[in-house]
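Reminder to self: tokens first, then the designed residues, so the page reads top to bottom the way the pipeline ran.
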């Protein structure tokens, strides 16, 4: 299912719901997601974060102890 269809499906479920708690939870979730720390970063910072995630996904990481040993003066 594509994103547009998913959104329409979710909206239809919300419209058909009489569950006030569900509506409050959805509103709270949307409000909490309005600002994500990632969105506050500039594009270079975002790219750095994404590259770091990609490195972790590829297993290119080392422990805190290794970092201390590698970068100690």
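Designed residues (73 positions):
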């Amino acid at each position: 299912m594509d994103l547009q269809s998913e959104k329409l499906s979710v909206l239809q479920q919300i419209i058909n719901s009489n569950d006030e708690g569900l509506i409050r939870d959805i509103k709270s979730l949307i409000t909490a997601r309005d600002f994500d720390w990632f969105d506050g970063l500039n594009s270079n910072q975002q790219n750095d974060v994404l590259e770091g995630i990609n490195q972790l996904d590829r297993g290119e990481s080392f422990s805190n102890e290794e970092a201390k040993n590698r970068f100690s003066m």
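The chain has a mean pLDDT of 89.
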